[in-house]
Amino acid sequence: MSLLRTRDISIHFGGIAALTEVDIEVQEAEIVGLLGPNGAGKTTLFNVISGFLKPDWGRIVFQGDEIAHLLPYERVAAGIGRTFQHVRLFRNLTVYENLLVAQHRHLSSGSFAAMLRLPGWRRDEKDARDRVEEILDVVNLRPWADAHPSELSYGTTRFLELASVLSLHPKILLLDEPASGIQQKEVEALGPLLKRIRDERGCSILLIEHDMSLLLNASERIYALDFGKIIAEGTPNEVVADDLVLESYLGRTRRATA
Amino acid sequence: MIYAAPVTEVTIFGLSSGAVFALLALGLVLIYRTTGVLNFAHWAIGLMAVVTYVMLTALGLPPQVAAALGLAVGVVSGVLAYRLVFKRLGRGRQVIVILIAIGLAQFYSSVAQFALGFEQFTRLQPWLPAGDVHLGQVAIRASEIITAVAAIVIAFGFLVWFRLSRTGRALRAVAQNKEAAMLAGIDDVKYSSIAWGIGSALAALALLLVMPHSAGEQGGIITTFDVTPFGTLLIPAFGAALVGGLVHLPMALLGGFVFGLSRELLILAPKPWSDLRASMAAILILFLLLLRTERFFATRQELEALE
Amino acid sequence: MKVDVAVEPRHGSAPVTEELEAPPVARVARRRPTRGQLLGLASLGLISVVPVPFGDFGYFIGQYATIYAILGLSVVVVTGYAGLISLMPYSFAGIGAMATGIAMASWGWPFWLALPFAAGATVPFALFVGVTSVRLKGLYLAIATLTISNALGETFFTWETITGGDSGHFVARPVVGPVDFGGDLAFYLLCLGAVFALLFMVEGLRTSRVGRAMLAVRDNELEAQALGINVAKTKLVAFVLSGMIAGFGGAFLAQLLISVTPNAFQSPFAEATSLLLVTLVAIGGMDRAIGAFVGAIALVVQQQIFNGFEFFFAFVGIYAAITLIAFLLFRPGGLVQVGKILADLTRARPALGLSIIAIILVTNVGGAWLILSLS
Questions:
Q1: Is residue B1 part of a domain?
Q2: DSSP characters for C319-334?
Q3: Residue C161 lies inside a defined structural domain of this protein
Q4: Full domain range(s) for residue C194
Q5: Rounded distance between C-alpha atoms, residue B275 and residue B120, angstroms
Q6: Where in chain A is the domain with CATH 3.40.50.300?
Q7: Mean pLDDT, residues A201-214
Q8: Whole domain around residue B152: which residue ranges?
């Protein structure tokens, strides 16, 4: 049984079909890539899977359960984590506090426990802080613990976002262009990092990426999208050689210069 | 005043208050769509005009002159609010913009309180002709009719001017897309100031029409109720503006009449319904808010520009 | 799982590599109070003692200020923490006050029972507003709360069953054993205790799962959802907590006013007071519990010294408005932020910092004395 399976996902905006009958499948502990030119519908697909958009029709099955009716926060609880194309962090909170927020689903104390400083709250806070301490060391963000995201370099904010989403202990991670805007050296470190996440946590990854070397290196399988439809599927080598895929990239450029 | 044919009377009241709501709403919409600020200080700025009127008539100036000068003060108050405060904000966080607008409302209304001297009532001289007009068997206050007519004329005139004039076009351009307007050589600050000036003029006109004539032959009264940050009429004016999603001028005009007429016509309704008068505006506004009227009237681009 | 990446600092210094010797960022478990907290506690203690030399009038102002601070705390929770613009805190206080009035005057309940009743009475209203807040974005929520406040002022707070008719409710101060809270000092201490308790609670809320969820929702709703936060529930909780705090303050307000008159919470004055509360909290520092305290006290005390009720409102209106706008334009963190800046400055350059503090104190106290002696 696959970890995540979408069937016939379709969605329109105005008169435009953003996605048409998209069927993809991700197994456990697998890295799957999503390839396609801008506007192909990759982020839209992510929005549908993570619950931020409701498809016109289609099914989403996660770990054998239908999840199409679940709200975004419920899908997080089910085990789906995602990042955004433009890094979304909490600007008014420090790095430390950002990571504390990410611990939300592991804690359970309510507002009264907090206001009255009951033992349940105390336990939760200690638990949260311990986890954040660990993450800070693991992702090497400790020097920035008290800084605000605006003081960090773009690459560092991306790592913060990654650390936050990993705090959710997801079973599948939807990464939207993790390499965009960061330096070459860090991009090269991403591939092995993603593989380690898969191996050490058993976490699957669905990856949107424009950086070809990263995408081809890290993915075990790739889906190619164009105009909201899957146009190719297979191993990186297969997809890259596929005629339709080449057409969708080169053809566009040709038409654009015509 | 002679009571007769309540329907006619109530309808005229409805039209007259509706026209006033419309004027206020048009000002709100103009300011909001051009500069992205929902002017919570709209009423208080209008108060500046009335307060000036009161002080000048007390000094002995003829009421019409005082009204004109009051109008000028209202315009200046509005433009100052934009130039000194809102211009600096750029694309500030919405919470901050709202808090500042509220602060200005408190500022101007407190200034008005000081200027009027904390009386329970302040009497105003009228500047429109007093006396009654007889329509068949019905007698209506002349000022009531003139207010209604004047407000309607001003409102329609404004709409036509906005549609057809170069300034109107420039204002629309700034509303749609500030950056593009700047690239086209349109001075964003100048036209935003114009928007605030005209918007505030509409508010000033609305208050100058209503307040000096609210007590019939004797002129008008201002009570302590009026010299508060939002007065008694701003909330229905928001409602009227909401009918057009806060961005559509003609619909705001219509909205004014919707709120004005519904409030007055309810007097004639059978008992349980007529008690709703006080909360009618609130119910309508909540309904409009939940309907998310801006979806119907603003393009996505405009909505984004306003955020 | 260790990640070896180059962490590039944004400003200045050379890139830090994985062999980094991180400056030890001390993450001491918060068991021992820091020097800053002790200083804060000392200031609170100091402020509490200020009314003493002024006798009964001083205690009255102290009661007023602390009750307004409680109402301010309700604004901190819903607008400061959760970022939801609510223009109706005084209406919630009114619900609490009326509930107290009815419970004590009509049903003969003791104050201690009326308190939780007052807080609970706000819950259905808070739930209603909270549900609308889920659907309405910032600006529209502001309009909605203003409208609801106005509607309540025109309907609910005019009904005789609620207001107790022309004479209102007469609410007696509680008597506990030998202590009669009818005395000004005793009641002041009661109010002080209440506001300190709530300060403790609201500040505690900030460092908790629920509080951080509110801060997250305020900052970035989408990301909050993506991290598993139930945004709708968070907003509801914010409104309910805020309503209950305001209702609680309303109970004390009823005690302060003793006779809760029928038009105490009617339009448009209720809205004007709500605005004032929001302004005070924004000046104090919107998202810090202590900010509400500081803001309420700074202004209520300073302006209550000037005689006359209407004068108070008008003057506070102008003074507060100008201060608010100045702060929002230049230092949105309010007095708390300015306080921090001053504290840092004083630590770094004591002479400069202390002289600035002295100048502020002198101009404020001097100005107040001047106006008092002229009137």
A1: no
A2: HHHHHHHHHHHH-TTH
A3: yes
A4: 53-333
A5: 27
A6: 1-79+171-258
A7: 90
A8: 6-306
pLDDT band at B87 (very low <50, low <70, confident <90, very high): confident
Test the A interface: residue of C81, C223, C245 with most A CBs within 10 Å: C223
H helix and E strand count, chain C: 16, 4
Q: Which 3 state secondary structure label does DSSP give A222?
A: strand
**pLDDT tens digits for range A8-67:** 999 998 888 889 999 999 999 999 999 988 888 899 999 999 999 999 999 999 999 999
**Closest to C18 (Cβ–Cβ): which among A117, A124, A140?**
A140
CA B195 – CA B188 distance, rounded (Å): 10
In this structure, CATH architecture of domain A1-79+171-258: 3-Layer(aba) Sandwich (3.40)
Dmax (CA) for chain A in angstroms is: 70
Query: Which CATH number do you get for residue B171?
Result: 1.10.3470
User: Looking at this predicted complex, what is its ipTM?
Assistant: 0.89
And the tokens for C98? 């009326």
Chains in contact with chain C (at least 3 beta-carbon pairs closer than 8 A): A, B
Answer whether residue C46 is part of any domain: no
Token output for C146: 């203003």
Q: What is the mean pLDDT of residues B145-160?
A: 86
Segment A61-82, tens digit of pLDDT: 999 999 999 999 999 999 999 9
Under 8 Å CB pairs connecting chains A and C tally to 158
Interchain contact C110–B (C-beta under 8 A): no
CB-based contact C328 B110, cutoff 8 Å: no
- Please report the pLDDT score of residue C373 as a whole number: 59
Query: With contacts defined as CB-CB under 8 Å, which chain A residues touch C202?
Result: 115
pLDDT for C82-103, tens place per residue?
999 999 999 999 999 999 988 8
Classify residue C138: in a domain, yes or no: yes
pLDDT of residue C30: 47
Sheet holding A204-208, edge to edge: A80-82, A172-176, A204-208, A31-35, A221-226, A229-234
Place of tokens 């309704």: B269
Question: Is residue B166 situated within a structural domain?
Answer: yes
For residue range C192-226, list pLDDT tens digits in order: 999 999 999 999 999 999 999 999 999 999 999 99
Yes or no, beta carbons of B113 and C279 under 8 Å apart: no
Q: Do C63 and C249 touch, CB atoms closer than 8 A?
A: no
Residue B204 has pLDDT above 90, yes or no: yes
Residues of chain C in contact with residue A116, where contact means CB-CB under 8 angstroms, are 201, 204
C-proximal residues of A, 23-82, CB under 8 Å: 50, 52, 71-73, 76-77, 81-82
With left for phi above 0 and alpha for psi between -120 and 50, is residue A20 left, alpha or beta?
A: beta
CB-based contacts of B132, cutoff 8 Å, min separation 6: B1, B2, B139, B140, B141, B142
pLDDT of residue C25: 39
Structural domain contains residue C203: yes
Retrieve residue C109's tokens. Answer: 């309940």
Query: Does residue A203 belong to the interface with chain C, where contact is any CB pair within 8 Å?
Result: no
